[in-house]
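$ run holo --ligand "D-glutamic acid" --emit tokens
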Amino acid sequence: MNPAPIGVFDSGLGGLTVVAQILNKLPDESVVYLADTAHVPYGERPLDEIRGFALDITAFLHGLGAKMVVMACNMSSATALGPAREAFPDTPVLGVIQPGSRAAIRVAAGRPVGVLATTGTVSSRAYSTAIRAAAPEIEVYEQACPEFVPLVESGESESARAYAAARRCVEPLVKAGVRTIILGCTHYPFLSSAIAAAAGPSVRLIDPAEETALQIDNTLTELGARAPLATAPRHRFFCTGDPDGFAEIGGKFIRSRIERVERAVWGVDLGKVLA
Ligand code: DGL
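-- output --
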């Protein structure tokens, strides 16, 4: 048994899709969450830069005593998972791309799979690589959606702009014949109403956060590191940028009140090298 928190991070609100699954499926676990809002959106930044952020944030969460670190960010998972596992060999580090790919392969049953993701994740081809490695017969179509993250961060997930952007991004995938679409950025499940409306009822949306929570559960159980039952979990939330708005929008997303958001400053609290 290990009461230490699970460290989770993303560029902003998106990783709360993973936190919501942890709160729901593993209610005894504590979470320490970092939103790198000083750098959001990650989407158009070079993958090398994201790798640096992800390694520094992993070090920060490790320093706070996290018993596991979850990269609840596809770009970080695509570029920093291997280096983080090397840098922190005693701490399990999980990403969202393998779990998302696994869930999609199960649902697609050999038919083509679509991926909606940020420009960086699409350019990494991480989903195509992961799916083809396990199911070479499945065709994968990846579509970048640079408008989505700013819509979520500004609390406009249900706006007419969100519905129009979803139609633009989903249309090429539906035309290509996909019936399974991976929400390949952790922000996108917050746009699932708009994406589902654009995709129509015959398309299944895959939120990698669900399968990621299963993997968290399995990994902690295998290591004998689950939190003791019926302890009151304690959650902490950090933002690297202005924390205004995070508690309000984030609290709605996870359906739980976020009492306090702490500030973590680049160059002071984390990333002393990168600043
Ligand atoms: N939510 C992150 C991801 O899954 C990053 C989104 C962004 O900041 O562009 O890739």
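-- notes --
The mean pLDDT is 95.
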